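Exam review. A common question shows you a sequence with its structure tokens and asks you to describe the fold in words. Practice with the pair below. Do the first one on your own.
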Amino acid sequence: MAAFTTKATIASFGGKLFKLSHQSKSTGTEMSLNLYLPPQAFSSSSSSSSQNQNKIPLLIYLSGLTCSPENCSEKGFFQHGASRRGLAVLYPDTSPRGLNLPGESSSWDFGVAASFYVDATEPPFDQNYKMETWLTSELPSVLFNDEEYGRKYNLDPDRVSITGHSMGGHGALSLYLRHPGLYRSVSAFAPIANPSKCPWGEKAFSGYLGAENREEWKRHDATELVATEAWRGKDLKALVDVGTGDNFYKQGQLLPENLEKAVAEAGATGFELRYQEVSFCCYFSPPLFSCFYSRSFPPFFTLSLGYTLEKALGS
């Protein structure tokens, strides 16, 4: 029995974008995801003798508040840069859906499409909002062991990087820091970099982790995590871009300066924070940077495609 239900197959930049779903044991719901396979995946799958030499690295892209797997795959067009570099891109959903839990659809920044990528401990979300487990354990296992997609197209479980936008930037940073060694690198567009100190994060963490349990908040906050012993003096392999024209940055929702300060105090290396004179609050800026970096700066695999080709994907 196939692990995934294929809902659509779309030709994209020489490769294919698959719209998939599977029944998740972590969330107890059907979870949606999009998977882009570059043209190189189809050439490697046709030749069994070259499979071990032509494994396809994977980038996981986490979307922001209110989003679904469609947002970045249909507006961000990371497929363009990914097709040039032979990179698969996985676009997971932003929360479980269809549960009709009390309060999960009352606001746009909490509940449905706003999971903050944590395993909730507070009812009524504690039974189904297990996004960290789904993303770091269940989904990779299902994908890489799936005959139809993971094995057939030679996806490489040893070369995985993670990135994200806004809430997804928080998710990418926090999951990367919480699971050392799971990903090759991390990058983020306009991430919520210090969620325990901003209104969005305070609301989400109160509802998912408990209003009084601020020590647990710190375990899901990139600014707090980078200061832990696990990362002191270490090479972070992290790249963050923030648009100074972003209203959410101006409102103090993102707080990248707090993360930058924490990195410096921890003596960590390999962290780059870049301020751009644009707004990253929508999906029309990422494709510009994806194309620009992959074309004009060969050492950069592009922010959206996993930090640098050398460090993010390895050889």
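Now try the second one, then compare your answer with the model answer below.
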Amino acid sequence: MSGPAGFGTGPRSSWERGLDEGEGAGRRGDADGGQALLEALEPVAEALGASLVTAAELDAADIPLRWRGRLVGGLRVPQLHGALTRLIEQVERELGGKLPDLSREDKQRAVHLLDDRGAFLLRRAVEDVADALGVSRITVYNYLNAIRS
């Protein structure tokens, strides 16, 4: 994902291409165009596993983003399908390694982070997290009991 100068290394997002092409709020660099808003929200979108879209690409499920009363784009949040995988990937990035390779202490911390983020509200989450950690369901339940007591 690309962004403001010095941030991101991936391909340009659709909202950046749209600003270049004059979609949405106006030309790139236009103070009223909302580019600053979109650039500021890019790390938030990335952390949520969401994406920024131009005003022209906005769908009914997207969150509209307005700058000075003008629609400049939207935030497209990911569907619930795949949410646990995205949460696990976030925790792996945060802890600096794949879950099965972590120490026992870091696995407990991973379960704590996943619990804080609501991962265990999802159906079959305990089983899926146990598989991702390389431990049994009982171990995950023990970690959860230790956290919650």
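Model answer, second protein: The first strand starts at residue 51 and ends at 54. The two ends are 40 Å apart (CA to CA). Full marks require stating both points clearly.
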